Amino acid sequence: MKRAFILVLTACFCLVGNSVFARSSSASDRNLILTEGTGEVTGQNDSAKIFIAVVTEGRKLEQASSENADKTKAVLTAINGLNIKHLKLETSNYRVTPQKDYKARPPKIKGYEVNNAIVVTLEGFEIQPLSKHVSRIVGKALESGSNTIQRIQFYLKDKSELEKKALKLATQEAMERAKTLAEAAGVKLKRIVSLSTQPIYASPRPHMLRAAEMKADAGTMAPPMEIGESRIRVQVSIAYEISP
């Protein structure tokens, strides 16, 4: 009886296995056309992040920290004093680095470097006001105590509409390619069996500025800023089932 049960169970597994294999085989045996399409659109940047730093050196940590704190406070007060609407200020990083004399054996600490990094954010502006505000902020920061402008990054706040346009263009291109392939091969497109997408973002190019160069221009205005554009690129993959 036990042996008979095992034989029956084995037969059931065989039937199930054959059934799954048959379904898998029929799916994999379908004739398909696979194509890809790429869509790329650009949009005018409307936002910026300005990365400012106050760097102070001193023999004693307490002295360097106190001086740095005073300069940082002066920079923040000066930037807020510009009265720019929707401006955001935040401290992004605070770092203390011992400065060592490596000629001594063993090396000795000869002083400290205190670095206080600030990020200024402006979002949702027209081209000219944004360029003007960024120039004023950079100039005012350098004038009030900052000695390093690390970088300026321009970007587009809302990319959703650009993504939609890019997706449409990429999908249309993929479908047109499939039609062309089908006509050339003398087959008919039946239906779409697979559709997928992958965003390909172009990394923004930050403006790299040196404080020494900007101080040489004098005044509270930095050089005019080129706002630039954001580029969005997407790729769409499509699979069509075909028939003779």
Describe this structure in words.
The protein is α+β, with helices and mostly antiparallel strands. The chain folds into 2 domains: 30-44 and 158-208 and 226-244, Translation Initiation Factor IF3 (2-Layer Sandwich), CATH 3.30.110.170; 46-155, Alpha-Beta Plaits. It contains 5 helices and 7 strands, in the order H-E-E-H-E-E-H-E-H-E-H-E. The strands form 2 sheets. A 4-stranded antiparallel beta sheet has the order 3-4-2-5. A 3-stranded antiparallel beta sheet has the order 1-7-6. Helix 2 (61-80) packs antiparallel against helix 3 (127-144). Residues 1-28 and 210-220 have low confidence and may be disordered.
Shape: elongated
Helix and strand string, N-terminal first? HEEHEEHEHEHE
Tell me roughly what share of residues is in helical segments.
40-55%
- Spatial strand arrangement across the major sheet: 3-4-2-5
CATH topology of the largest domain: Alpha-Beta Plaits
- How far from one another are the termini? 53 Å
CATH class of the largest domain: Alpha Beta
CATH architectural arrangement of the largest domain: 2-Layer Sandwich
Task: Count every helix, treating DSSP H or I runs of 4 or more residues as helices.
Answer: 5
Number of structural units classed as domains: 2
The overall pLDDT, averaged over residues, is 83
Given helix and strand content, the structural type is alpha+beta
Q: What kind of sheet is the major sheet?
A: 4 strands, antiparallel
